[in-house]
């Protein structure tokens, strides 16, 4: 800088910053240092910059500390709420399952009672028809006997008249008349017995008809109770199935494909074969109640298959301790970050979010200590930057098993878990599965 410009600056700053002299005294001499206005201004400016930078850096560190603590507390609260919700829903699911099992048992008992009543009703109907047939036979026999009796009386009267007209009746005519009288008496007694049997048959038929009416009424009442049981079961199954359908759809999974694959994997059957009642057209004859029961059992089977699929899909979080989301899924600095980062202390347990098989466990560039797990439905989960690995390649693991510990290995700026979910080889946002299950588990 030219001397002339410095002099002008000194002159301009003289009023604000007058020249100062710093005396340095020794045992033999005394020296001084001139602090001109420009020198003082430069020193003040440098000091102000340093002070301002210190204030800003301290503020940033303080704010980051506060935000980290707040986020950690919020994560802890959210984790606790999630676990309470999970426990509550698990208990509710168990209660629903117990209610469904109890209702199923009541339904089986009701079906047995209906079957017994139907058998009793059929026996009563058969007995009534037999009684009516017997009454008809007795009535026809009674009419025939009455006709024979009338004919015998007429013949007896004619024989007596013939005997009287001849004067002295011959023994043969008298015997014929006596035989005819005995025949008439026998027919009269038989007719009385037949009439009594007819009356007894009519009383028995009336009793059978009354019993059939009572059985019909009991059957109708039992059918009404069965209808109430079916309605309750259908409502409970519908309420329980809707959140599961919504959860799988929110995760981008087709519920029909999920059920189809689970059904193929769990398709064992066996046991004795029972005869099936067939209709006149050759098809299995099912009542309306049996069709509703089959529908409910089918829905319960689908619910059980959903439960199996949930254990095989990564709906749970791999970290159950306190953690902080430090990096989301997506592009950063022009490159795809294929998972989410969950930060926590070194050694934090890492748990398997679903059943599967370990296809790699070891070091991989960038990931450090890494585990890759193959799940059903073409899903793979990846866990990177681990400090320890507790599984081996080829090992089968179950939901909730501890597979590793959080660490800071590989390309990492601090201890955290890098968590990925890949479907068909392509990475997707893990929060898709985690958010889909938050209202169900």
General description of the model:
By secondary structure, the chain is α+β, with helices and mostly antiparallel strands. The protein contains 6 helices and 14 strands. The longest helix has 129 residues, at 37-165. The model is unreliable at 270-280 (pLDDT under 50).
Percent of residues in helices: 55-70%
What's the count of strands?
14
Shape category: rod-shaped
Number of helices: 6
What's the story with the biggest beta sheet?
10 strands, antiparallel
Overall pLDDT metric: 78
Q: Based on the structure, what is the oligomeric state of the protein chains?
A: single chain
Low-confidence stretches: 270-280
Tell me the structural class: alpha+beta
Give the strand content.
15-25%
Give the arrangement of secondary structure elements.
Elements: H1 3-13, E1 20-25, E2 30-35, H2 37-165, H3 171-250, H4 255-265, H5 288-312, E3 324-327, E4 330-332, E5 335-337, E6 340-343, E7 349-351, E8 356-364, E9 368-374, E10 379-389, E11 396-397, E12 402-406, E13 416-423, E14 426-428, H6 431-436
Antiparallel strand pairs: 1-2, 3-6, 4-5, 6-13, 7-12, 8-9, 8-11, 9-10, 10-12, 10-13, 13-14
Helix pairs in contact: 2-3, 3-5, 4-5
